[in-house]
Amino acid sequence: MDLSRHNAPIAAIATAPGRGAVGIVRVSGASVASVIDALCGRRLKPREATYLAFRAADGSTIDQGLAIHFPAPNSYTGEDVLELQAHGGPVVLQLLLARCVEAGKALGMRVAQPGEFTERAFLNDKIDLAQAEAIADLIDASTEAAARSASRSMAGEFSGEIHALRDALIHLRMLVEATLDFPEEEIDFLRKADAQGQLDRLEQSLAGVMQRARQGALLREGIKVVIAGQPNAGKSSLLNALAGAELAIVTPVAGTTRDVVSQTIQIEGVPLHVIDTAGLRESDDAVEKIGIERAWGQIESADAVLFLHDLTRASAPDYLAGDAAVAQALAARVPRSVPVIEVWNKLDASPDASPPQVAGHDTILLSAKTRAGLDALRRKLLEVAGWQSAPEGVYMARERHVQALRRVDSHLREAAALSSRKAQALDLLAEELRLAQNALNEITGEFSADDLLGVIFSSFCIGK
Predict the structure, then answer these.
(1) With CB atoms 3.0 to 4.6 Å apart as the test, which of 284, 315, 376, 457 could cross-link to 119 if both were Cys?
(2) What's the pTM?
(3) pLDDT score recorded for residue 205
(4) Quick one: average pLDDT of 323-343?
(5) Model confidence over 196-209: pLDDT tens digits?
(6) pLDDT digit string (tens) for 240-282?
């Protein structure tokens, strides 16, 4: 990482673009005294809001508002921070930002890059990497459950669990290294210190953290659910029913949907990205063929597929033949790990129908028109997503955290296998424990590649 760019002070508009009652311009650097003097014309008491006029270079007033100075190291970034709260007009805020950059020119002041304030907070040990990501997740949270979980991660709950695992791992490594360093000693350090028991307890603790992290990642990412099936099975009606709004056009004409229609819904706080697709069938219509190809593109990248059938045609040979053709194509093009749920629609029109059962697939009967059976489908979607009733302890996590924890688990499993071989494998055991600790450190940023940090902070908004 290029640390030289962090020596210069930075400035940015910290509120969202557009008009508003209040807008904030934020400045951070080793010292912002000259900027305070230039814009405010007076000293500011630390962490005390002061109402005054913000001055232009010629002494005229740009705006009037509140100025707050947060001296280092007691600030968000760990540096000197100045916040100017002005009226929220875009022109006013741009004028204030330009004036800040102008006033700090001698210091090398520049406009901040996306996420640079939070990146400086991380580099100055105000927060760790998991907490930094939680800040972005809190801003982007699309459900109440996601916001609460992100808030817990931002407060350090997730990081605390990672640090507890790391400390236990370090202690175990110390025992193994001691045995390696003093092989002539008759004392069996590992046996007397119950190293095997410590390793077992560490694996149990890791399992709990992994479960909560998977739930947190699900709250953040959600799953992609694609509705597939023959034309006129009610795919658009089902999307509308799940979304609770008339999003897709519904007509009795087969093949009405020609393109992809998507909507994000939430069930128990879990975001589900539901996608309605064109009916799957052989067609000579050029536009419909494009829609069908797009449908297959969505299906092949789905986390779950709802294979929708029409109960009113459950006994029609031609319809069943079409379903069989779609089922065969799904089996060939959808990975085995992706669940396919058999959903029979139009229960209101055929309450006594008995649809055929497909081995290995769950079957749900419903009516998109009356909403009967919809709750059962929602529960099934949560089940295939891997969601469990959200306990208060779930914290926000990302897929990279889950992957890192899986690597830790893999190294600990290998370490457990090696521990039974005693002294003959102690060096290999020590290496597996070291790799496990490195994987844990990647989560909090104590051991991270520079390009990873660049990707993470570039996804933040400017001014944060």
Answers:
(1) 457
(2) 0.75
(3) 93
(4) 90
(5) 888 999 999 999 99
(6) 888 876 665 544 544 555 567 888 888 888 888 999 888 888 8
The answer to whether the beta carbons of residues 85 and 24 sit under 8 Å apart is yes
Distances in Å between the alpha carbon of 325 and those of 285, 287, 302?
19, 21, 19
